[in-house]
Amino acid sequence: MAIRNVVQVGDDILRKKCFEVTAFDEKLALLLDDMKDTVRREEGAGLAAPQVGVLRRAVVIDVDEGFFELVNPVIVDSKGEQRGWEGCLSVRGKRGVVTRPQTVKVEYFDRAGKKKKLTAHGFFARAVCHELDHLDGILYIDRAERVERSD
């Protein structure tokens, strides 16, 4: 396990659509382990594979509800609306106000390739949406109604 460098805005990889994970193997396990170490070291709420230079549909989320690894995640339902501040490990020194669903239902695979489902509410839902956007080359600054420097 290792801490990986977090790619910063301006790098083309953050604007690319990621490929589905097809091999649930040691390489994926190592990526997920490294992403966990990295997000915890950076004290973030989540991290997507392209943020560490890997164009695969995998994210990790570290919130009050627990630590989650989502491989090939898809939002299958969303409800409500919430508006709030977001930041990003790939957009240092800024924050923005973004509107997201209040609740999302997600289907995904775990690191072993087992299909799973989860329902996320509030900040957890915000983190899920933010990280899944990364998999399609979308940054929160693209959705923000305003962006400002953070202190």
UniProtKB/TrEMBL annotation:
Coiled coil: none annotated. Transmembrane segments: none annotated. Its EC number is 3.5.1.88. SUPFAM superfamilies: Peptide deformylase. The active site is at E131. GO terms for biological process: translation. Its cofactor is Fe(2+). Fe cation binds at C88, H130, H134. Belongs to the polypeptide deformylase family. This is Peptide deformylase. It comes from Candidatus Borkfalkia avicola.
